[in-house]
Amino acid sequence: MSERHDVLIVGGGLVGASLAIALHGHGRDVALLEATAGDSLPAVFDQRNLSFAAATVNALTALGVMQKLVSPPGPITRIHVSRAGDFGRVQLAAADYDRPYFGQVVVARDFGNALEARLQELPVVRRYRPMRFVGLGEVVDGYRQVRVADADGERTLQARLVVGADGTRSGVRQALGIAVDTHDFQQTLLVARLRSQRAPDGTAWERFTDNGPTALLPRGDRHYGVVHGVPGDQAEAVLALDDAAWLQRLQQAIGWRAGRLLGSGPRSAYPLRQVLAQDVVGQRAVLLGNAAQTIHPLGAQGFNLGLRDALTLAELLEPAGDAGADALLQAYVQRRAEDRRQTIAFSGGLARLTSNAAPLLRPLRSLGLLATQAPAVQSLLVGGAMGFRGDVPRLCRGVAA
Ligand SMILES: Cc1cc2nc3c(=O)[nH]c(=O)nc-3n(C[C@H](O)[C@H](O)[C@H](O)COP(=O)(O)OP(=O)(O)OC[C@H]3O[C@@H](n4cnc5c(N)ncnc54)[C@H](O)[C@@H]3O)c2cc1C
Protein backbone atom coordinates (compact mmCIF):
# COMPACT_ATOMS: atom_id res chain seq x y z
CA MET A 1 0.00 0.00 0.00
CA SER A 2 1.31 3.47 -0.89
CA GLU A 3 2.68 5.53 1.95
CA ARG A 4 2.12 8.79 0.07
CA HIS A 5 -0.89 10.81 1.14
CA ASP A 6 -2.62 14.09 0.34
CA VAL A 7 -3.16 14.79 4.03
CA LEU A 8 -1.32 13.14 6.94
CA ILE A 9 -2.90 14.00 10.30
CA VAL A 10 -0.50 13.56 13.20
CA GLY A 11 -2.51 12.90 16.39
CA GLY A 12 -5.81 11.03 16.66
CA GLY A 13 -7.11 12.99 19.65
CA LEU A 14 -10.24 15.11 19.72
CA VAL A 15 -9.29 17.43 16.86
CA GLY A 16 -7.30 15.04 14.64
CA ALA A 17 -10.00 12.35 14.66
CA SER A 18 -12.69 14.97 13.98
CA LEU A 19 -10.71 16.31 11.02
CA ALA A 20 -10.30 12.81 9.54
CA ILE A 21 -14.08 12.40 9.66
CA ALA A 22 -14.71 15.88 8.20
CA LEU A 23 -12.43 15.09 5.25
CA HIS A 24 -14.46 12.04 4.35
CA GLY A 25 -16.01 12.38 0.90
CA HIS A 26 -13.55 15.05 -0.28
CA GLY A 27 -11.82 12.57 -2.58
CA ARG A 28 -8.52 13.11 -0.78
CA ASP A 29 -6.15 10.38 0.36
CA VAL A 30 -6.19 10.91 4.13
CA ALA A 31 -4.09 9.17 6.81
CA LEU A 32 -4.39 9.43 10.58
CA LEU A 33 -1.34 8.67 12.70
CA GLU A 34 -1.66 8.04 16.45
CA ALA A 35 0.87 6.94 19.06
CA THR A 36 -1.70 4.96 21.10
CA ALA A 37 -2.30 1.32 20.12
CA GLY A 38 -5.45 0.48 18.16
CA ASP A 39 -7.09 -1.50 20.96
CA SER A 40 -7.29 1.47 23.35
CA LEU A 41 -8.34 5.11 23.22
CA PRO A 42 -5.69 7.85 23.52
CA ALA A 43 -5.31 8.97 27.16
CA VAL A 44 -6.89 12.36 26.45
CA PHE A 45 -10.28 10.63 26.17
CA ASP A 46 -10.60 10.45 29.95
CA GLN A 47 -13.26 11.36 32.50
CA ARG A 48 -13.17 15.12 31.81
CA ASN A 49 -16.53 16.67 31.04
CA LEU A 50 -16.53 18.50 27.75
CA SER A 51 -18.99 21.25 27.19
CA PHE A 52 -19.75 21.32 23.46
CA ALA A 53 -20.91 24.71 22.17
CA ALA A 54 -24.10 24.71 20.08
CA ALA A 55 -21.95 25.23 16.94
CA THR A 56 -19.95 22.12 17.84
CA VAL A 57 -23.10 20.05 18.39
CA ASN A 58 -24.37 21.15 14.94
CA ALA A 59 -21.13 20.14 13.26
CA LEU A 60 -20.68 16.82 15.08
CA THR A 61 -24.28 15.92 14.25
CA ALA A 62 -23.71 16.70 10.56
CA LEU A 63 -20.58 14.52 10.71
CA GLY A 64 -22.54 11.60 12.21
CA VAL A 65 -20.61 11.58 15.51
CA MET A 66 -23.23 12.76 18.05
CA GLN A 67 -25.45 9.87 16.90
CA LYS A 68 -22.74 7.43 18.04
CA LEU A 69 -22.74 8.58 21.67
CA VAL A 70 -23.85 5.71 23.87
CA SER A 71 -24.70 7.89 26.92
CA PRO A 72 -27.01 10.82 26.29
CA PRO A 73 -25.35 14.27 26.38
CA GLY A 74 -26.57 16.78 29.00
CA PRO A 75 -28.04 19.93 27.46
CA ILE A 76 -27.12 23.25 29.15
CA THR A 77 -30.29 25.32 29.03
CA ARG A 78 -29.37 27.87 31.73
CA ILE A 79 -26.12 29.33 33.05
CA HIS A 80 -25.90 30.79 36.54
CA VAL A 81 -22.72 32.67 37.47
CA SER A 82 -22.09 34.11 40.92
CA ARG A 83 -19.22 35.28 43.05
CA ALA A 84 -18.66 34.68 46.78
CA GLY A 85 -19.06 37.94 48.74
CA ASP A 86 -20.66 39.69 45.78
CA PHE A 87 -24.35 40.38 45.24
CA GLY A 88 -23.97 40.46 41.46
CA ARG A 89 -24.95 37.37 39.56
CA VAL A 90 -25.55 36.52 35.95
CA GLN A 91 -28.35 34.25 34.87
CA LEU A 92 -28.71 33.32 31.23
CA ALA A 93 -31.45 31.21 29.66
CA ALA A 94 -31.02 29.72 26.19
CA ALA A 95 -34.74 30.27 25.54
CA ASP A 96 -34.13 34.05 25.75
CA TYR A 97 -31.87 33.66 22.74
CA ASP A 98 -34.36 31.43 20.87
CA ARG A 99 -32.09 28.43 21.32
CA PRO A 100 -32.96 25.03 22.82
CA TYR A 101 -29.59 24.98 24.63
CA PHE A 102 -26.27 26.83 24.93
CA GLY A 103 -24.35 23.62 24.54
CA GLN A 104 -24.19 19.98 25.62
CA VAL A 105 -22.04 18.17 28.17
CA VAL A 106 -20.29 15.02 26.96
CA VAL A 107 -17.76 12.89 28.83
CA ALA A 108 -14.47 12.81 26.88
CA ARG A 109 -14.28 9.00 27.05
CA ASP A 110 -17.76 8.63 25.52
CA PHE A 111 -16.76 11.11 22.83
CA GLY A 112 -13.61 9.10 22.04
CA ASN A 113 -15.70 5.94 21.60
CA ALA A 114 -18.16 7.81 19.36
CA LEU A 115 -15.35 9.21 17.17
CA GLU A 116 -13.84 5.74 16.88
CA ALA A 117 -17.20 4.18 15.98
CA ARG A 118 -17.68 6.77 13.23
CA LEU A 119 -14.12 6.32 11.94
CA GLN A 120 -14.74 2.57 11.69
CA GLU A 121 -17.52 3.35 9.22
CA LEU A 122 -15.10 5.32 7.03
CA PRO A 123 -12.49 2.71 6.09
CA VAL A 124 -11.01 5.03 3.45
CA VAL A 125 -9.04 6.79 6.18
CA ARG A 126 -5.68 5.01 6.44
CA ARG A 127 -4.77 4.45 10.10
CA TYR A 128 -1.22 4.27 11.38
CA ARG A 129 -1.33 3.14 15.03
CA PRO A 130 0.51 2.67 17.18
CA MET A 131 2.97 4.90 15.39
CA ARG A 132 4.95 7.89 16.61
CA PHE A 133 5.77 11.06 14.74
CA VAL A 134 9.54 11.52 14.94
CA GLY A 135 10.44 14.43 12.68
CA LEU A 136 10.07 16.27 9.37
CA GLY A 137 12.36 16.05 6.36
CA GLU A 138 12.67 18.08 3.16
CA VAL A 139 9.97 18.63 0.56
CA VAL A 140 10.62 16.30 -2.41
CA ASP A 141 8.47 16.58 -5.57
CA GLY A 142 5.77 18.46 -3.67
CA TYR A 143 5.64 15.95 -0.77
CA ARG A 144 6.83 16.66 2.76
CA GLN A 145 8.90 13.78 4.14
CA VAL A 146 7.71 12.65 7.56
CA ARG A 147 9.81 10.42 9.83
CA VAL A 148 7.76 8.01 11.93
CA ALA A 149 8.52 5.01 14.15
CA ASP A 150 6.76 1.88 15.38
CA ALA A 151 7.89 -1.43 16.90
CA ASP A 152 9.62 -2.32 13.60
CA GLY A 153 11.74 0.83 13.67
CA GLU A 154 11.81 4.12 11.79
CA ARG A 155 10.56 4.84 8.27
CA THR A 156 9.46 7.75 6.11
CA LEU A 157 5.94 8.66 4.98
CA GLN A 158 5.15 11.42 2.49
CA ALA A 159 2.36 13.97 2.46
CA ARG A 160 1.28 17.00 0.46
CA LEU A 161 0.10 18.44 3.77
CA VAL A 162 1.14 17.47 7.31
CA VAL A 163 -1.42 18.40 9.98
CA GLY A 164 -0.05 18.76 13.50
CA ALA A 165 -2.96 17.79 15.74
CA ASP A 166 -0.59 16.30 18.29
CA GLY A 167 -1.54 18.34 21.33
CA THR A 168 0.11 20.81 23.69
CA ARG A 169 3.64 19.39 23.39
CA SER A 170 3.37 19.09 19.61
CA GLY A 171 6.36 17.40 17.98
CA VAL A 172 5.24 18.74 14.59
CA ARG A 173 5.38 22.29 15.96
CA GLN A 174 8.89 21.67 17.28
CA ALA A 175 10.02 20.12 14.00
CA LEU A 176 8.77 23.23 12.17
CA GLY A 177 10.80 25.39 14.55
CA ILE A 178 7.71 27.36 15.61
CA ALA A 179 8.20 29.10 18.96
CA VAL A 180 5.51 29.33 21.67
CA ASP A 181 4.39 31.91 24.23
CA THR A 182 3.55 30.22 27.51
CA HIS A 183 1.84 31.30 30.69
CA ASP A 184 1.59 29.22 33.85
CA PHE A 185 -1.75 29.96 35.57
CA GLN A 186 -0.36 28.38 38.79
CA GLN A 187 -3.72 26.77 39.11
CA THR A 188 -4.79 23.13 38.97
CA LEU A 189 -8.25 22.00 37.91
CA LEU A 190 -9.73 19.02 39.71
CA VAL A 191 -12.45 17.16 37.86
CA ALA A 192 -14.87 14.48 39.07
CA ARG A 193 -18.36 13.09 38.62
CA LEU A 194 -20.75 14.08 41.41
CA ARG A 195 -24.05 12.78 42.68
CA SER A 196 -26.34 15.31 44.33
CA GLN A 197 -29.65 15.24 46.17
CA ARG A 198 -31.14 17.19 43.26
CA ALA A 199 -30.64 15.80 39.74
CA PRO A 200 -29.40 18.29 37.12
CA ASP A 201 -32.17 20.38 35.51
CA GLY A 202 -30.09 21.81 32.66
CA THR A 203 -28.47 24.56 34.73
CA ALA A 204 -24.69 24.98 34.69
CA TRP A 205 -23.67 26.52 38.02
CA GLU A 206 -20.50 28.59 38.08
CA ARG A 207 -19.17 30.10 41.27
CA PHE A 208 -16.04 32.17 41.73
CA THR A 209 -14.14 32.61 44.97
CA ASP A 210 -10.75 34.16 45.75
CA ASN A 211 -9.28 30.64 45.67
CA GLY A 212 -10.53 29.86 42.18
CA PRO A 213 -13.61 28.85 40.20
CA THR A 214 -15.98 25.93 40.74
CA ALA A 215 -18.53 24.78 38.18
CA LEU A 216 -21.18 22.08 38.18
CA LEU A 217 -22.05 20.93 34.68
CA PRO A 218 -25.29 19.01 34.04
CA ARG A 219 -24.34 15.63 32.58
CA GLY A 220 -26.82 13.44 30.75
CA ASP A 221 -26.55 10.58 33.28
CA ARG A 222 -28.27 12.36 36.22
CA HIS A 223 -24.85 13.32 37.63
CA TYR A 224 -22.93 16.57 37.65
CA GLY A 225 -19.43 17.05 36.34
CA VAL A 226 -17.53 19.22 38.79
CA VAL A 227 -14.62 21.44 37.83
CA HIS A 228 -12.82 22.84 40.88
CA GLY A 229 -9.85 25.20 40.49
CA VAL A 230 -7.26 25.33 43.28
CA PRO A 231 -3.93 27.16 43.56
CA GLY A 232 -1.26 24.85 42.09
CA ASP A 233 0.60 24.43 45.38
CA GLN A 234 -2.56 23.17 47.14
CA ALA A 235 -3.53 20.56 44.54
CA GLU A 236 -1.75 17.63 46.23
CA ALA A 237 -3.43 18.33 49.56
CA VAL A 238 -6.91 18.61 48.01
CA LEU A 239 -6.36 15.39 46.05
CA ALA A 240 -5.43 13.67 49.31
CA LEU A 241 -8.68 14.64 51.10
CA ASP A 242 -11.03 11.77 51.88
CA ASP A 243 -14.39 11.79 50.06
CA ALA A 244 -16.30 13.39 52.94
CA ALA A 245 -13.85 16.30 53.23
CA TRP A 246 -13.73 16.70 49.44
CA LEU A 247 -17.54 16.89 49.24
CA GLN A 248 -17.64 19.35 52.12
CA ARG A 249 -15.08 21.55 50.37
CA LEU A 250 -17.12 21.52 47.16
CA GLN A 251 -20.36 22.21 49.01
CA GLN A 252 -18.73 25.25 50.59
CA ALA A 253 -17.45 26.46 47.24
CA ILE A 254 -20.67 26.03 45.24
CA GLY A 255 -23.31 26.56 47.96
CA TRP A 256 -26.62 24.70 48.09
CA ARG A 257 -28.03 25.60 44.71
CA ALA A 258 -27.81 22.06 43.40
CA GLY A 259 -28.82 20.53 46.74
CA ARG A 260 -26.68 18.39 49.05
CA LEU A 261 -23.73 16.74 47.35
CA LEU A 262 -23.89 13.01 48.12
CA GLY A 263 -21.03 11.24 46.39
CA SER A 264 -17.99 11.69 44.16
CA GLY A 265 -16.22 9.56 41.57
CA PRO A 266 -12.40 9.53 41.33
CA ARG A 267 -10.70 12.92 40.98
CA SER A 268 -8.31 13.85 38.16
CA ALA A 269 -5.97 16.83 38.28
CA TYR A 270 -4.89 19.11 35.41
CA PRO A 271 -2.18 21.75 36.05
CA LEU A 272 -3.02 24.68 33.78
CA ARG A 273 -0.72 26.35 31.28
CA GLN A 274 -1.51 28.45 28.25
CA VAL A 275 0.68 27.56 25.27
CA LEU A 276 0.26 29.65 22.12
CA ALA A 277 2.15 28.92 18.90
CA GLN A 278 3.57 32.09 17.33
CA ASP A 279 2.67 30.78 13.89
CA VAL A 280 0.19 28.10 12.83
CA VAL A 281 1.57 27.16 9.40
CA GLY A 282 4.91 26.10 7.94
CA GLN A 283 6.03 24.63 4.63
CA ARG A 284 3.35 22.05 3.71
CA ALA A 285 2.27 21.94 7.34
CA VAL A 286 -0.41 23.35 9.60
CA LEU A 287 -1.08 23.21 13.36
CA LEU A 288 -4.58 22.68 14.74
CA GLY A 289 -6.19 22.45 18.17
CA ASN A 290 -3.97 22.30 21.25
CA ALA A 291 -0.83 22.18 19.08
CA ALA A 292 -1.72 25.67 17.88
CA GLN A 293 -3.25 26.99 21.09
CA THR A 294 -3.74 25.41 24.50
CA ILE A 295 -5.99 27.68 26.54
CA HIS A 296 -7.47 27.74 30.04
CA PRO A 297 -10.37 25.23 30.14
CA LEU A 298 -12.60 27.45 32.28
CA GLY A 299 -14.37 29.03 29.32
CA ALA A 300 -14.85 25.49 27.88
CA GLN A 301 -13.48 26.66 24.54
CA GLY A 302 -10.40 24.53 23.75
CA PHE A 303 -11.94 21.72 21.73
CA ASN A 304 -14.71 23.95 20.38
CA LEU A 305 -12.03 26.24 18.94
CA GLY A 306 -9.90 23.33 17.70
CA LEU A 307 -12.90 21.80 15.93
CA ARG A 308 -13.47 25.09 14.11
CA ASP A 309 -9.78 24.96 13.07
CA ALA A 310 -10.38 21.48 11.66
CA LEU A 311 -13.66 22.33 9.90
CA THR A 312 -12.18 25.44 8.29
CA LEU A 313 -9.25 23.40 6.97
CA ALA A 314 -11.67 20.75 5.69
CA GLU A 315 -13.65 23.42 3.82
CA LEU A 316 -10.48 24.77 2.21
CA LEU A 317 -9.51 21.22 1.19
CA GLU A 318 -12.86 20.55 -0.47
CA PRO A 319 -11.98 21.79 -3.97
CA ALA A 320 -9.42 19.67 -5.83
CA GLY A 321 -5.84 20.95 -5.99
CA ASP A 322 -2.60 20.75 -4.05
CA ALA A 323 -3.51 20.13 -0.38
CA GLY A 324 -0.32 21.78 0.85
CA ALA A 325 -0.27 24.81 -1.45
CA ASP A 326 0.98 28.03 0.09
CA ALA A 327 -2.11 29.96 -0.97
CA LEU A 328 -4.37 27.44 0.81
CA LEU A 329 -2.33 27.72 4.01
CA GLN A 330 -2.39 31.52 3.88
CA ALA A 331 -6.17 31.43 3.37
CA TYR A 332 -6.38 29.19 6.43
CA VAL A 333 -4.37 31.62 8.55
CA GLN A 334 -6.58 34.48 7.46
CA ARG A 335 -9.85 32.69 8.08
CA ARG A 336 -8.84 31.51 11.54
CA ALA A 337 -7.26 34.74 12.82
CA GLU A 338 -10.32 36.49 14.26
CA ASP A 339 -11.91 33.48 16.04
CA ARG A 340 -8.51 32.43 17.41
CA ARG A 341 -7.67 35.92 18.71
CA GLN A 342 -11.08 36.48 20.31
CA THR A 343 -11.35 33.05 21.89
CA ILE A 344 -7.84 33.20 23.37
CA ALA A 345 -8.60 36.67 24.77
CA PHE A 346 -11.95 35.50 26.16
CA SER A 347 -10.52 32.42 27.89
CA GLY A 348 -7.44 34.22 29.22
CA GLY A 349 -9.58 37.12 30.46
CA LEU A 350 -12.00 34.80 32.21
CA ALA A 351 -9.11 32.95 33.86
CA ARG A 352 -7.55 36.18 35.13
CA LEU A 353 -10.88 37.59 36.25
CA THR A 354 -11.67 34.53 38.32
CA SER A 355 -8.38 33.25 39.65
CA ASN A 356 -6.46 36.31 40.79
CA ALA A 357 -6.81 36.62 44.53
CA ALA A 358 -5.28 40.11 44.79
CA PRO A 359 -7.73 42.12 46.93
CA LEU A 360 -7.23 45.24 44.81
CA LEU A 361 -8.69 43.44 41.82
CA ARG A 362 -11.85 42.55 43.68
CA PRO A 363 -13.92 45.58 42.65
CA LEU A 364 -12.75 45.11 39.09
CA ARG A 365 -13.92 41.53 39.07
CA SER A 366 -17.31 42.57 40.39
CA LEU A 367 -17.54 45.17 37.68
CA GLY A 368 -16.59 42.50 35.18
CA LEU A 369 -19.53 40.40 36.30
CA LEU A 370 -21.84 43.40 36.21
CA ALA A 371 -20.70 44.31 32.73
CA THR A 372 -21.80 40.91 31.52
CA GLN A 373 -25.33 41.84 32.53
CA ALA A 374 -25.59 44.58 29.93
CA PRO A 375 -27.62 43.05 27.10
CA ALA A 376 -25.16 43.90 24.30
CA VAL A 377 -22.19 42.44 26.16
CA GLN A 378 -24.28 39.46 27.18
CA SER A 379 -25.32 38.53 23.68
CA LEU A 380 -21.71 38.87 22.51
CA LEU A 381 -20.63 36.57 25.34
CA VAL A 382 -23.37 34.09 24.55
CA GLY A 383 -22.61 34.09 20.81
CA GLY A 384 -18.96 33.37 21.59
CA ALA A 385 -19.75 30.69 24.14
CA MET A 386 -22.05 28.98 21.64
CA GLY A 387 -19.23 28.96 19.11
CA PHE A 388 -20.56 31.41 16.54
CA ARG A 389 -17.56 33.70 16.38
CA GLY A 390 -15.58 35.09 13.43
CA ASP A 391 -15.83 33.32 10.06
CA VAL A 392 -17.97 30.37 11.19
CA PRO A 393 -17.41 27.04 9.35
CA ARG A 394 -20.47 25.89 7.39
CA LEU A 395 -21.12 22.72 9.39
CA CYS A 396 -21.25 24.75 12.64
CA ARG A 397 -24.20 26.69 11.26
CA GLY A 398 -26.13 23.46 10.90
CA VAL A 399 -25.63 23.05 7.15
CA ALA A 400 -25.27 19.38 6.27
CA ALA A 401 -22.12 18.16 4.51
C1 LIG B 1 -10.01 19.54 32.60
C2 LIG B 1 -10.26 19.96 31.18
C3 LIG B 1 -11.55 20.26 30.78
C4 LIG B 1 -11.80 20.68 29.47
N1 LIG B 1 -13.07 21.01 29.12
C5 LIG B 1 -13.31 21.44 27.86
C6 LIG B 1 -14.64 21.82 27.48
O1 LIG B 1 -15.57 21.77 28.28
N2 LIG B 1 -14.85 22.23 26.20
C7 LIG B 1 -13.82 22.29 25.29
O2 LIG B 1 -14.09 22.69 24.15
N3 LIG B 1 -12.56 21.95 25.62
C8 LIG B 1 -12.28 21.53 26.88
N4 LIG B 1 -11.01 21.17 27.23
C9 LIG B 1 -9.94 21.26 26.21
C10 LIG B 1 -9.83 20.02 25.33
O3 LIG B 1 -9.61 18.87 26.11
C11 LIG B 1 -8.68 20.22 24.33
O4 LIG B 1 -8.90 21.42 23.64
C12 LIG B 1 -8.59 19.06 23.35
O5 LIG B 1 -8.21 17.89 24.00
C13 LIG B 1 -7.57 19.38 22.25
O6 LIG B 1 -7.58 18.35 21.31
P1 LIG B 1 -6.34 18.05 20.35
O7 LIG B 1 -6.79 16.96 19.45
O8 LIG B 1 -5.81 19.30 19.79
O9 LIG B 1 -5.19 17.52 21.32
P2 LIG B 1 -5.24 16.17 22.19
O10 LIG B 1 -6.63 15.87 22.52
O11 LIG B 1 -4.25 16.37 23.27
O12 LIG B 1 -4.72 15.03 21.20
C14 LIG B 1 -3.40 14.91 20.78
C15 LIG B 1 -3.21 13.50 20.24
O13 LIG B 1 -1.92 13.42 19.62
C16 LIG B 1 -1.30 12.20 19.98
N5 LIG B 1 0.16 12.39 19.86
C17 LIG B 1 0.93 13.25 20.58
N6 LIG B 1 2.22 13.15 20.19
C18 LIG B 1 2.26 12.21 19.20
C19 LIG B 1 3.31 11.68 18.38
N7 LIG B 1 4.59 12.08 18.52
N8 LIG B 1 3.00 10.74 17.47
C20 LIG B 1 1.71 10.31 17.32
N9 LIG B 1 0.67 10.79 18.06
C21 LIG B 1 0.95 11.73 18.98
C22 LIG B 1 -1.77 11.94 21.40
O14 LIG B 1 -1.67 10.57 21.74
C23 LIG B 1 -3.21 12.42 21.34
O15 LIG B 1 -4.11 11.41 20.96
C24 LIG B 1 -10.72 20.76 28.53
C25 LIG B 1 -9.43 20.45 28.94
C26 LIG B 1 -9.20 20.05 30.25
C27 LIG B 1 -7.77 19.73 30.66
Labels describing this entry:
eight-stranded mixed β-sheet; single chain; alpha+beta; 30% helix
Could you characterize the architecture of this molecule?
This protein has 401 residues and is an alpha+beta fold. It has a domain at 4-72 and 105-182 and 273-355 and 390-397: FAD/NAD(P)-binding domain (3-Layer(bba) Sandwich), CATH 3.50.50.60. Helix content is 30%, strand content 32%. It has helices at 14-22, 54-62, 108-120, 171-175, 235-240, 243-254, 302-316, 326-355, 362-371, 375-385; strands spanning 4-10, 30-33, 49-53, 74-76, 78-83, 89-93, 103-107, 126-128, 132-140, 143-150, 153-164, 180-196, 203-209, 212-218, 224-231, 261-264, 268-277, 281-282, 285-287, 293-294. Strands 5, 6, 12, 13, 14, 15, 16, 17 and 20 form a 9-stranded mixed beta sheet that branches. Strand 10 and strand 11 (153-164) form a beta hairpin. Helix 1 (14-22) packs parallel to helix 3 (108-120). The longest helix has 30 residues, at 326-355. The protein is globular. The mean pLDDT is 90. Flavin-adenine dinucleotide binds at residues 10-16, 33-36, 42, 44, 48, 50-51, 132-133, 165-167, 171, 189, 191, 270, 289-291, 297, 300-304, 306.
List unreliable stretches of 5+ residues: none
Helix content: 25-40%
> In CATH, what is the class of the domain at 4-72 and 105-182 and 273-355 and 390-397?
Alpha Beta
Classification by helices and strands: alpha+beta
CATH architecture of the domain at 4-72 and 105-182 and 273-355 and 390-397: 3-Layer(bba) Sandwich
The kinds of small molecule bound in this structure are: flavin-adenine dinucleotide
The main sheet comes to: 9 strands, mixed
Q: Strand tally, please? A: 20
Q: Superfamily at the CATH H level of the domain at 4-72 and 105-182 and 273-355 and 390-397?
A: FAD/NAD(P)-binding domain
- Number of contiguous helices: 10
Mean pLDDT, all residues: 90
Distance between the termini: 29 Å
CATH topology of the domain at 4-72 and 105-182 and 273-355 and 390-397: FAD/NAD(P)-binding domain
Write down the secondary-structure element order.
EHEEHEEEEHEEEEHEEEEHHEEEEEHHHH
Quaternary structure classification: single chain
Question: How much is the radius of gyration in Å?
Answer: 21 Å
Give the overall shape.
globular
β-strand percent reads: 25-35%
